[in-house]
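Contributing new records

If you add data, match the layout below exactly. Sequence lines come first and carry their own label; structure lines follow with theirs. Keep one chain per record. Anything else will be rejected by the validation script.
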Amino acid sequence: YNEFDTQRNILYELVTDHIVNGLVILGTINTYAPMHKPIEFYQRYSSLPLVHIGLPLENIPTVMATAEAGLYAAVVHLIRAHHYHRIAFINSPENRPMARPRYQAYAQALTDYGIAIDPAIVIAGDWTVHSGGVAGERRLDHHKADVQAICASNDNMALGALAALQARGIH
């Protein structure tokens, strides 16, 4: 969470049925909220056609993305194209519904290529840029060159890890 998140969320206060004809809302809006909050939020726009992209929400039209397929493909790419075997993973919070499938995709890719899962390079995150940065720093401090790549369960944590790497001159 950062200042930009607050500013970005102000945009939702400007949306009315006089300004837009419908809404397509990415499911990351509920990343930091309890699961009942997005439903309350979406009900504010009940006069508009609306679709939610993410986990299914009761009585809200939803399109689900297969994040695990993309994560699996990313890990396989690192293994096949770059010959990496030490791939760290910044995991989702355990209390979030998307946590398990994304970790399972990471683990399945490693297993499919005969690579043992090393719990020491699976780091807990909390979906924020900050936690990704902290996870990236921990891997660098504790494992030095022993980690060849870092994958993350969401974009925010990936951006944080990337910033931590760049701050150390690793590009």
